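FAQ: What does the model actually see?

It sees only this:
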Amino acid sequence: MSFQYAPTLRLYQNLYDCLSDPGELDVIDAIRAAEIHTACSERCQPRRRAQQTIASARSTEVERRPKADQLAE
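And it is asked to produce this:
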């Protein structure tokens, strides 16, 4: 009988530890990490990852929005 670990189990364990890099986060996990680590310093690894992920998601969303001149057509 083989037992497989859920990949998200490691993520959530590291999400609470300021010294551990949680790895790549999706937007939901990034928001969760940002909420958990709001009072942490810039040295907090989950906070840094969360900020990167959220900034990347915002820039992607802005790029997908139609420009004003495209709406007029």
